[in-house]
Amino acid sequence: MEKYALFAVFQAFRKTMAEESMRSLSRKAKVSVSTAKNCIDYLYSKKILTRKIVGKQHQYALNEESFLTRQLKIAANAGEISDSGLVEEISKEYPDVQSIVWYGSTAKGLDSPKSDVDVVLLSRKPLKIKPLKAEERLARELSISSYTMQEWRKKALTDKAYYDAVIIDGICIFGEMPVVN
């Protein structure tokens, strides 16, 4: 997706999470200044960016209040997870896994470049998770919690806040959402 200028510009904002001038952003996104301007104008018109005028220079940043910004960040994060091969690696290494749920700030579009990727695995048997190669490809820390279905049912009763965070804000990336009745 980085081959598309609009996405490259959005990714450059996403990776810096700071105010940027049009010229500095064009360098980071590896696009011409005129292309950066067209992309920034579009993103600003959709309220995905904010603008601050400092002297004669305009500084732009992601509008963290915008639901569109959050949805674009979720899509970009999902693309990175998919490209990392996380689901494939987990399902190959741990065939007893029934569900993989991605949750936390990266699944809600509230992440920063230093945020980790939170994942819950539900399996038939207890798992001993070892480091995954997908974590290197993600270039983010991977935080994995693993439960059997029996442990997950107990967790739903004893730690309702955690359970709700996973079920309500989580995105099931393998299997089915592990809702406890």
Give a verbal description of the structure.
49% of the residues lie in helices and 20% in strands. With 181 residues, the protein is of the alpha+beta class. The chain has a 4-stranded mixed sheet with strand order 5-4-3-6, sandwiched between helices. A two-stranded antiparallel ribbon has the order 1-2. The longest helix is centred in the middle third of the chain and has 18 residues, at 67-84. It is elongated, with a radius of gyration of 19 Å.
Q: Major sheet: size, sense and barrel closure? A: 4 strands, mixed
- Decide which structural class fits the backbone: alpha+beta
CATH class of the largest domain equals Alpha Beta
Helix content: 40-55%
Overall pLDDT score = 95
Q: Say how many strands there are.
A: 6
Map the helices and strands.
Layout: H1 5-16, H2 22-29, H3 33-45, E1 49-54, E2 57-62, H4 67-84, H5 86-93, E3 97-103, H6 105-108, E4 117-123, H7 133-138, E5 142-148, H8 149-158, H9 160-169, E6 171-174
Parallel strand pairs: 4-5
Antiparallel strand pairs: 1-2, 3-4, 3-6
Helix pairs in contact: 1-2, 1-3, 2-3, 8-9
Structure in a nutshell:
This protein folds into 2 domains: 5-63, Orthogonal Bundle (Arc Repressor Mutant, subunit A), CATH 1.10.10; 68-174, Beta Polymerase, domain 2 (2-Layer Sandwich), CATH 3.30.460.10. Helices cover 49% and strands 20% of the residues.
